[in-house]
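To: structure desk
From: M.T.
Subject: fold request, one chain
Message: Could you run this one when you get a chance? Sequence is below, nothing fancy, just the single chain.
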Amino acid sequence: MALIDLHTHTDRSDGSTPPAELVRQAIAAGLKALAISDHDTMAGHDVAAPVAADCGLELVCAVELSTRPNEQREGGKREKSVHVLGYWLDSPPSEEFRLYLETQQASRRKRNLDLVAKLQQLGVAITLEDAEVYGRNQVGRPHFARVLLDKGYVTNIQQAFDVYLADDAQAAVDRDEPTLKEGIQRIKAGGGLASLAHPVRLPQRGAELERLVENLLEDGLEGIEVFHSEHDPADCDEFAAIAARFGLIPTGGSDYHGDNKPGILLGSGKDGNLSLEYRFLEEMREMSAAKRQPRNGTK
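Reply: Done. Structure tokens follow.
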């Protein structure tokens, strides 16, 4: 049985696995297709592409954008990030979209510099260079967490987030992220399929989640991640029903991060709760092509 994994991360964002090594791991795991969906960058995909071609692994171009639900703060505090997956199933992203990703890298670097300054104010002896040892192309909070652990400020990675790095922690720093609507629109304008990532993490469920999805349709939302390592069977059923109701394309993947999420395995998720056959990707392509067909009476 040929399997796939359409949600993975490399050390070019917040994963621990180099792109070429991820390709080799995918082949060893028996995968026929893989999507590298690093946060706000395609650097991991670009490095992996020639390796995958040489090895006969189908590599799907993807990205995971970090967005905020609203432009304005509520009660002086920004809402938590919402992630949107972008997939380019048959053709590469536009050059404009790639240039847009470069602006997102700039905003990440500014956030990192502000984070270092805030940690230092709290008496934490840390530099950006310390985190860059772990984050190659892109430095994120998981890399700072590893430095805090190395230096003995925390006893585990979760404590690093709870005490210093989470959105409501001591060293929390806002990042200039696009709104959810803009993120979806950017992916669509760049020729991609925009899918709402791991909806189980959203505060909205039931009818409230359906209203959110319905409102995002006009912005270009075309998919929802039905299968994910954090989704139990009831979650998958709920998100599959939403996909069917609004004509969305189901997507899925492990959200593999290597050593940074040791409980998540490539291709099989958490405790074997993921098993997507290659036909799943073929159906995504078929649904995507159908959405792009001109309606009757139009040219």
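Reply (cont.): The beta strands are 3-8, 31-36, 58-67, 82-88, 193-196, 221-228, 249-253, 276-277. Let me know if you need anything else for the meeting.
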